[in-house]
Amino acid sequence: MITRRLARQASAFSQSTPWTCPSCTRAIAAPSRTTIASSPSRFLSTTRPLFLRDVPKLAHQDRFTTDGIPGLLSPGGFKIAWLDYQRLMVEKLNDLTAGEPFENSQTKDLVLRFARDPLAASLFNHASMAHNNNFFFSGLSTSPLRLDAVPNVKESLIDTFGSIETLKATMLDTASAMFGPGFVWLVWARDLNNPTSGQAGRHGAWRILSTYLAGTPYPEAGYRQQGLDTNTSNASEYKGYMNQQPANAVGSFGPFSTSAQKQSKLPPGGTNIMPVLCVNTWEHVWLRDYGIHGKRAFLSDWWNCIDWSVVEGNTPGEAKGQNTWVRA
C-alpha cells in the first residue's frame, strides 16, 4: 500500500509555477487545485479519523492488568501481549481507515472486505491481527470453566477426535511445530455436501486449522488464509499449495474447495467455518514470561487456562447436536 504523502499542501501549488520534487532532479508541472481535489485517495487521509477505534475491553481485563492471567501470563506479559500490542494494531487501523467510508467497520468486516485487494495488504494485516488477538484473549478467564462442565461440547469433540487427549496433543503439537508466528484454531466445519448427515444431528466435524502471521481462518477471505508456512517451503511447494485441489477434509479450506463453492446453501450471513478457539504463537506473547525455550510450556499452560464457557458460546448449534436450519 502506498503510504507516502506530499510534503506540501495543495494550497501551496500555483498553476503558473512549476514545482521541483525534492527527490527528483526534474521539474514537473504543478497540477491544478481542481485536479488535486478530485483525485481519489486510497486509504490516505491528512485529517484525524472521524471514528476512533479503541482497544476492546476484555471481560476480565481489570484483573488481568493488576494480577496477570492466572497460570499463564504475568501482569507485564499481559501488558505487552494485549494492552500495548492491541493498541498498536488499533491505532494503525485508525490511521489506515481515517476519512474512508469503511472507517467505522468492525475488524472482521475489514478482513473479509480487503482480503482479495493486494493494494490493501497493510489494512488487511492489521485488521486480521487485531481480530485474531482479540479472539485469543477473549477465550481466557480468571476462573475458567472446565470442559467437563459443558458435556455437549465435550461429546461433540470426542466424536471427531476420539478423545480430548488426542485433541489436546494434536493442537499443541501443531502450535509447537509452527516455525514462525501465527495462530492455531479449533474450528467447526459445516458439511455442505450432505447437510443432513452427521452424528447426533451434527452436520459437520471439528478441524484444527493453522494460519501464519496475520492469516485469517475465514474461507471468505480466500488466499489470505495463509495456510502454508512460507519460512520452510520452497517455490514449487508454494505453487503446489496455491493450485492444489482438496483431497481431504483438512484441504477443504483452500481457495478451490467444494465447500466454498456451495456457500449459498447457508442462511444469509452464514459461513462454513466457525472458529471457536485459538492460541496465539507470536513470540511477543510468551517470550517475556517463558524465555527462549518456553514455547511448549506456554502452550501447555494455555490449555489449562481455556474458558470452555466461551468456547461453548462460540460453538454453533449443530455442533452441539441442536437442530438448525440449512437451506437445501
UniProtKB/TrEMBL annotation:
Q: What GO terms are given for molecular function? A: metal ion binding; superoxide dismutase activity
**What cellular component GO annotations does this protein have?**
cytoplasm
Which spans are transmembrane here? none
Manganese/iron superoxide dismutase C-terminal domain location is 152-191, 263-312
Q: Which branch of life, at top level?
A: Eukaryota
Q: Which SUPFAM superfamilies match?
A: Fe,Mn superoxide dismutase (SOD), C-terminal domain, Fe,Mn superoxide dismutase (SOD), N-terminal domain
Q: Which Pfam families does this one have?
A: Sod_Fe_C
Q: What does this protein do?
A: Component of the mitochondrial ribosome (mitoribosome), a dedicated translation machinery responsible for the synthesis of mitochondrial genome-encoded proteins, including at least some of the essential transmembrane subunits of the mitochondrial respiratory chain. The mitoribosomes are attached to the mitochondrial inner membrane and translation products are cotranslationally integrated into the membrane.
Spell out the PANTHER family in the cross-references: 37S RIBOSOMAL PROTEIN S26, MITOCHONDRIAL (PTHR43595), SMALL RIBOSOMAL SUBUNIT PROTEIN MS42 (PTHR43595:SF2)
What is the protein name stated in its UniProt record?
Manganese/iron superoxide dismutase C-terminal domain-containing protein
Q: Which organism is it from?
A: Hortaea werneckii EXF-2000
Q: Tell me the classification of the organism that encodes this protein.
A: Eukaryota, Fungi, Dikarya, Ascomycota, Pezizomycotina
